[in-house]
Amino acid sequence: MSDDRPAGDSDEIGERARRLFAGPVDFLKSAPQLQFLPDPDAPEVAFAGRSNVGKSSLLNALTGRKSIARASVTPGRTQELNFFEVGEPTVMRLVDMPGYGFAKAPPAVTEKWRRLVRDYLRGRAVLQRTLVLIDARHGLKPVDGEMLKMLDEAAVGYRLVLTKADKIKPTELEAVLAATQAEARKHPAAHPQVIATSAETKAGIPELRAAVLADALNL
């Protein structure tokens, strides 16, 4: 979604996104390996982020549900791609990718995650955008940089999204937002717009819904 889009178009997309996410959103399946992926017959937007970045909470807020996405009891143990269908008939799919950067995961688990995610990113023709979630309290970490590198190498367009924006002061949020936008500009595959969100206060959620819809359908 272009930052210089006319206001009328942005309002129309925002309302369309609100109606879409107010409708059916259903869990489709989990894919522990590529052969279990659903048929590539709908555009997909994937969500990536460090363990405990608030990905499940953001997905729940985005879809207006309380528990469509559940946080793993043991961070780093869930090594599957989870697919959710949005709309009836299906307009798009949301893909919940396993969290990265977990400290206690065995090397074999880490390598399994890396292989699954890398192969999905490189080989999924219907993947329209990946959203990389960044904890606003901490900003970009080296492990996030590794994820951006993986996306750059896979030539997948992505967008940086700040989570837990309500947990820091507005001045601190502005500084983190500016730093994140500056980093995004260094990556040709990164969208220049960074959205700050809060799953608790719902700040930024309407903007994120509109961005997800626009990214999925190339609006």
Strand order of the largest sheet: 1-3-4-2-5-6-7
Major sheet details: 7 strands, mixed
In the CATH hierarchy, what is the architecture at level 2? 3-Layer(aba) Sandwich
CATH topology: Rossmann fold
Strand content: 15-25%
C-alpha geometry: globular
String of helices and strands: HEEHEEHEHEHEH
| Parts with pLDDT < 50 across at least 5 consecutive residues | none
End-to-end distance: 7 Å
Cα-atom Rg, whole angstroms? 16 Å
Number of strands: 7
What would the average pLDDT be, to the nearest integer? 89
The residue fraction in helices comes out at 25-40%
Structural class: alpha/beta
The CATH superfamily title: P-loop containing nucleotide triphosphate hydrolases
How many distinct domains? 1
Number of helices: 6
Give the C-level CATH assignment: Alpha Beta
Cofactor: Mg(2+)
InterPro entries: G_ENGB_dom, GTP-bd, GTP-bd_ribosome_bio_YsxC, P-loop_NTPase, Small_GTP-bd
Keywords: Cell cycle, Cell division, GTP-binding, Magnesium, Metal-binding, Nucleotide-binding, Septation
Family: Belongs to the TRAFAC class TrmE-Era-EngA-EngB-Septin-like GTPase superfamily. EngB GTPase family.
Protein architecture, described:
The chain has a single domain, classed as P-loop containing nucleotide triphosphate hydrolases (Rossmann fold, 3-Layer(aba) Sandwich), CATH 3.40.50. Helix content is 38%, strand content 19%. It is built from 6 helices and 7 strands, in the order αββαββαβαβαβα. It is of the alpha/beta class and 219 residues long. The longest helix is centred in the middle third of the chain and has 17 residues, at 107-123. It has a 7-stranded mixed β-sheet, with helices on both faces. Helix 1 (7-22) crosses helix 6 and helix 2 crosses helix 6.
